[in-house]
Amino acid sequence: MQQQQLRQQLLAKRAAISAPDRAAEAAAVSEHLLALPELQKTKRIGSYISVKAELPTPQLNQRLISMGHQLSVPVLHPINTGHLLFLQVHPKTLWVPNKYHIPEPALQVADITPLAHLDILLVPLVGFDHQGNRLGMGGGFYDRTLAAWHRGAYPHLQVIGLALTCQQTPKLPVNPWDIPLNKVITAAKVWDFLR
Ligand SMILES: Nc1nc2c(c(=O)[nH]1)N(C=O)[C@@H](CNc1ccc(C(=O)N[C@@H](CCC(=O)O)C(=O)O)cc1)CN2
Ligand SMILES: Nc1ncnc2c1ncn2[C@@H]1O[C@H](COP(=O)(O)OP(=O)(O)OP(=O)(O)O)[C@@H](O)[C@H]1O
Hints:
binds ligand FFO
């Protein structure tokens, strides 16, 4: 199947999940994540602000902050088009919608967290397969932003996808620029992809 067709099919499946089911899956995913050994010490964590039918992150993000983790979220890079910057979230953060209507922190240089400083990056996805391949919204933002990581630039960084169960698919078509994930967490389990 064509990648775009597959994306539409997976987006439709995701949109068909009821709000209570979505919330229940998010709660289960949060429990799995927070139980990981690497989360037992405070870390610098990159997350995302969920929109529409994505696995919801508001409660998870709030819990990560209240546990003392330092939280950053993506901003569309103002200069390096197609890349993401991560900005730390704090009580005084001003939120502005980006061109996709996703809230992001107003750009403040002091809040920039270089990718190299993050320990864990939680990424949204449209689909994933059993080899850790990821299908996103089609902007290539995470692929571009993580290209240096994939070449070994910051080996301590773990990239973890958060997903609804219906987002798994047996095999995704893989493009040369696609960046595979270390783990994907669904309500039922933590998928570990050895690299
Ligand atoms: N919550 C969240 N944040 C994220 C991403 C994401 O997938 N989810 N991204 C992952 O890369 C980046 C933004 N990339 C995106 C690329 C395309 C579309 C998009 O096409 N969205 C709508 C149209 C939105 C609108 O204009 O209302 C669409 O479904 O067609 C959205 C985000 C960074 N932040
Ligand atoms: N490292 C890169 N350098 C240049 N272009 C890239 C790179 N990675 C991806 N792209 C471009 O981005 C476009 C979208 O890629 P793709 O469909 O794989 O995005 P995605 O992973 O689904 O999206 P996202 O990461 O934003 O959720 C492709 O046309 C591809 O050419």
